[in-house]
Design brief:
The complex is a heterodimer. Chain A is built from nine helices and 14 strands. By secondary structure, chain A is an alpha/beta fold. Chain A has two domains: about 200 residues, P-loop containing nucleotide triphosphate hydrolases (Rossmann fold); about 110 residues, Hypothetical Protein Yjia, Chain: A,domain 2. The relative contact order of chain A is 0.14. Chain B has no helices and 18 strands. In chain B, the strands form four sheets. A six-stranded antiparallel beta sheet of chain B has the order 13-14-15-16-17-18, with no helix packed on it. In chain B, strands 1-2-3-4 form a four-stranded antiparallel beta sheet, with no helix packed on it. The chains are: A alpha/beta, B mainly beta. Chains A and B meet through α2 of A and β15 of B.
């Protein structure tokens, strides 16, 4: 792909196991060098020139829009690291347990210098199997982190019963059905499941699992953050869809954490793929629809206080 | 001697140089060409007779500022160094925790300033250190012409600080993230560059009855 440096964002509430995962990534013999941006020095047991402390400073742009917030310290640090390109293969950003992943992700789309040289690979969230359910009730940050994730590591599975584990996984799925989920103890999993995921690469959004579209996933009405997915069996009209999605993300962008979709445009042999973070939208035509594929149009929205009926109505109105 | 009859092109005098690393700054300490390099070294001397002087080692050289007499560098090793025409690096300061030096400024009067995160430190020509802690990260530093007052760009504005007095810094407020700062040669204007594509300027009062005036330059 490009020669942009991949950046993995590691989130997770306090005590979930982020540092364990980070130490595991750094100590395994994979032959790669990582620059690591941490929020606290000293927790990492690895001696590395390229461990940098960050202060998690969030910059709000003058217009005060939530979707334009970026991490000022990340811009500065990535700028400094990029001048030493060649010394490392990838960057890992560890956030504090209380961090909101949105400004971190947005930094890679909003700051041109950073976006030109680095690409967001994936947001990886470590969740504590025993305590996550409690945290989701009292910590909005924990919920944001789950909702935002491309990869969820459900850790400390040895501390709960199988039934409890299934329950916590169901809770996670209600908030975020689209992420890859791994059950672990002590964050033991292949590093390839965490790094180099290309989650923000449109070419890698291969499918939106039909499984996510089942109504059964929407019974957790207590959650203020939830996901919703819709399917049109057939084509959509790009002249209707484009204005609708742009308007939706402009108006509700503050509440929409992530969105994704694979669409069949009328008279278009290629699949149209889009993904977004709050108000930032990215979309392009991808590969051809295969002969053995049914042309369906699917979209997933994860967000807070979203009106399911309204979005459903809007999406279905774009059908060709 | 250049003949006036046939105007010489500037390009005839250009010598390309392969610095071998990202060039952070170019300067002429004591009239000698110097390139501050991201790999931690300074390349000093005229083309063909250059020396590489390792200043910050593998931790990298992050920021640099210069005066007619010297090149001041800040590194990922938490050190601030000064280098003159002789090429002998002198350590001005070493941060005990080895934090990245985020910004550095040098005044022809001999004052040097640097920052690590929210902490800004100055060192005058007699080696006296003064430190101030800001509420947000110092992004850019610039000395006023006389080298007594320092401008600091940070989140939501800039601060003007006299390190040798007890007076708290004067705060110039403007919402948004200010990344770097420069001062006009007469010391009357402070201009910052911002995260959103804009410059913001302040005209400082020249007499007590005047107020600070703003300049907005968006692009």
């Amino acid at each position: 792909m490009s020669d942009k440096i991949p950046v993995t964002v590691l989130t997770g509430y306090l005590g979930a196991g982020k540092t364990t995962l980070l130490n595991r990534i750094l100590s395994e013999p994979h032959g790669k060098k990582y620059a690591v941006i941490v929020n606290e020095f000293g927790e990492i047991g690895i001696d590395n020139d390229l461990v940098v402390g960050a202060d998690e400073e969030v910059f709000e742009m003058n217009n005060g829009c939530i979707c334009c917030t970026v991490r000022g310290d990340l811009i500065r640090i990535i700028d400094g690291l990029m001048k030493r390109k060649g010394k490392f293969d990838a960057i890992i950003v560890e956030t504090t347990g209380l961090a909101d992943p949105a400004p971190v992700a947005q930094t890679f789309f909003m700051d041109q210098d950073v976006g030109d040289r680095a690409r967001l690979d994936a947001v990886v969230t470590v969740a504590d199997a025993k305590w996550l359910t409690e945290r989701l009730k009292d910590a909005p940050e924990a919920k944001n982190q789950i909702a935002f994730a491309d990869v969820i590591i459900l850790n400390k599975t040895d501390l709960v019963t199988p039934a409890e584990l299934d329950a916590v996984e169901a809770t996670i799925r209600a908030i975020n059905p689209a992420a890859k989920l791994h059950r672990t103890t002590k964050c033991a999993l292949p590093i390839a499941d965490v790094l180099d995921r290309n989650a923000f690469d449109l070419d890698r959004i291969l499918d939106i699992e039909p499984d996510f579209l089942e109504e059964g996933h929407h019974h957790h009405h207590a959650e203020d953050i939830r996901s919703m997915s819709f399917e049109i069996r057939g084509d959509v009209d790009p002249d209707k869809f484009m204005p609708w999605i742009q308007d939706l993300t402009q108006v509700k962008g503050g509440d929409i954490l992530r969105c994704k979709g694979i669409l069949a445009f009328r008279n278009e042999p290629k699949r149209f793929v889009f993904q977004g973070v709050h108000m930032i939208l990215d979309g392009d035509l991808q590969r051809d629809w295969r002969a053995d594929e049914t042309r369906v149009s699917r979209a997933v929205f994860i967000g807070r206080n979203l009106d399911r009926e309204e979005i459903k109505k809007g999406f279905f109105a774009t059908a060709a | 001697m250049i003949s006036l009859a046939t105007p010489a092109s500037l390009t005839q005098h250009v010598t390309p140089l392969d610095a071998g690393s990202h060039v952070i700054a170019a300067a002429w300490p004591g009239g000698v060409p110097a390139l501050a390099l991201a790999d931690g070294a300074v390349m000093l001397g005229v083309p063909g007779l250059q020396r590489r002087i390792d200043v910050h080692g593998g931790a990298g050289l992050l920021v640099a500022a210069s005066t007619p007499g010297r090149l001041v560098t800040g590194g990922g090793d938490g050190r601030v160094c000064s280098l003159g025409a002789t090429g002998e690096p002198a350590e001005i300061h070493r941060d005990p925790k080895g934090g990245w030096i985020d910004a550095v400024a040098a005044s022809p009067t001999g004052s040097v300033a640097w920052s690590i995160g929210k902490r800004v430190t100055t060192c005058d020509d007699k080696g006296r250190l003064k430190t101030i802690e800001l509420s947000s990260t110092a992004q850019g530093l610039a000395w006023f012409p006389k080298g007594y007052r320092l401008a600091i760009a940070h989140y939501n504005g800039a601060s003007l600080w006299f390190p040798n007095t007890q007076t708290p810094p004067e705060f110039l407020e403007w919402k948004g993230a200010h990344l770097d700062v420069s001062i006009s040669v007469d010391g009357r204007f402070v201009v910052t560059s911002m995260q959103e594509l804009a410059l913001h300027g302040w005209r400082l009062p020249s007499k007590p009855t005047e107020k600070v005036a703003h300049m907005r330059m968006s692009g």
